[in-house]
Write a structure and sequence with these properties.
CATH architecture of the largest domain: Up-down Bundle
Number of strands: 7
Radius of gyration: 21 Å
Number of helices: 12
CATH class of the largest domain: Mainly Alpha
CATH topology of the largest domain: Butyryl-CoA Dehydrogenase, subunit A, domain 3
CATH superfamily of the largest domain: Butyryl-CoA Dehydrogenase, subunit A, domain 3
Strand order of the largest sheet: 2-3-7-6
Structural class: alpha+beta
Strand content: 5-15%
Length: 390
């Protein structure tokens, strides 16, 4: 184990980020899983930081986890996204599985063995509509079985367990869902779609026909509607935004290095890209403020069940995701204009092609149009909060 006693999360994340950065371009070009980075996460015991201390974790806050996401995002966005998606799944267990014996034991396993969790919510016929399922889990006695046409399971072939959504029984409505944990020895994956994409290539989000059988106690005890509203959606928007902030921050750093190099070559002259760099710095600060405000809102809401399930909280998290996913593209475009052909070319210290391609996924991971539609419906009945102090 490489983790030194008492080492801060940021120090451990920085060591993982150094490994991730060394392999980031190869991961992107080959569209391969960032194995070296995930091995480093395991060595630093980062996969269990959210789990409570009594079960072997560290009880890390959502803000601390977001900081790790942003550090990793500055080195390899695919590795950062794998870490973020793992922690999003862990949040469902931590928030809704602590009272169930099997799930408590499983969380201890995650800590002991540094298990990697994946998610299967997307389904053929409904796409990325998280709150609907076609497949239904079959429970017979103390066993459960599930078959799902999962059109996307990020790093599914590399995960140690998959948390998967389905209807709660064969006659249930499409929105009457449960989430079940299946470990690798309990399911089979038959690949149906290959992940050959513009960006985020290293997440290896292939599609699979998923078939599993396990003890029925592995079904999370709370309805998925509660899991989604109280932990999963907010955690997704917050941790994804932290990854995107990391990508934008690295693009900004490359642009700043380019402008500084130009200034050294021509002392006494303001480089052409300097003003645009100032604009990008302004946008990066806005993005950071958006994420920090969202993290603070989530911490406050977690202590108040009514606030956590309120329309106002849902609107705030939706707006966070929309704002973050759109702002990063503007920042990276500014950086590309500053660095010019050196940013456009691959293999230079200022290359930004990978950043730009990876960032384009942000508006598509839970489609912004779908989120805006949801927010517009909420705003028909919800009065926008105008207080600076919330």
């Amino acid at each position: 184990m490489n983790m030194s006693t008492g080492a801060g999360l940021a120090e451990r994340a920085a060591r993982v980020a150094a490994v991730a950065e060394a392999h980031a371009d190869d991961v992107d070009v080959k569209g391969r899983f960032p194995q070296e980075a995930v091995d480093a996460m395991r060595a630093e015991r980062l996969l269990s930081i959210q789990i409570v201390t009594e079960l072997g974790g560290e009880g890390a806050s959502i803000a601390e986890i977001a900081e790790v996401c942003s550090i990793l995002g500055q080195s390899c966005s695919a590795a950062a996204m794998v870490f973020a998606m793992h922690q999003i799944k862990a949040s469902s267990l931590v928030s809704h599985g602590t009272d169930a014996a099997w799930h408590r034991t499983f969380m201890r396993r995650i800590a002991d063995e540094q298990l990697l969790l994946a998610s299967a919510t997307t389904e053929g016929g409904i796409g990325g509509n998280l709150r609907n399922s076609i497949c239904a889990i079959a429970v017979e006695g103390d066993r459960c079985r599930l078959e799902k046409d999962a059109t996307v399971i990020s790093y599914g072939a590399n995960a140690d367990a998959i948390l998967i959504t389905s209807r709660s029984h064969a006659e249930a409505a499409s929105t009457d869902q449960v989430m079940t944990v299946f470990t690798k020895d309990q399911y089979t994956l038959e690949r149906t779609h290959v992940w050959d994409t513009l960006g985020m290539r290293g997440t290896c989000s292939d599609g699979y026909l998923f078939k599993a059988e396990a003890p029925a106690e592995q079904i999370l005890p709370k309805p998925f509607a509660e899991i989604a509203a109280q932990s999963m959606l907010a955690t997704s928007h917050l941790l994804w935004s932290a990854v995107w902030y990391g990508i934008a921050a690295n693009a900004m750093a490359r642009a700043q290095a380019f402008v500084r190099a130009a200034a050294r070559r021509s002392p006494g002259q303001t480089p052409p890209g300097a003003l645009r760099l100032a604009e990008a710095s302004n946008l990066l600060q806005l993005l950071k403020s958006n994420v920090v405000a969202g993290l603070n809102e989530f911490e406050v809401a977690k202590a108040d069940a009514d606030r956590l399930s309120s329309m106002g909280f849902a609107v705030a998290m939706n707006n966070l995701k929309i704002g973050s996913s759109e702002t990063i593209l503007t920042i990276i475009n500014h950086a590309m204009l500053i660095c010019g052909i050196m940013g456009y070319k691959n293999g230079t210290p200022y290359s930004l092609g990978r950043h730009l391609r990876d960032a384009h996924s942000a508006q598509l991971m839970i489609s912004n149009d779908r989120i805006l539609g949801n927010t517009s419906n909420l705003l028909l009945v919800h009065k926008q909060d105008t207080s600076l102090l919330g």
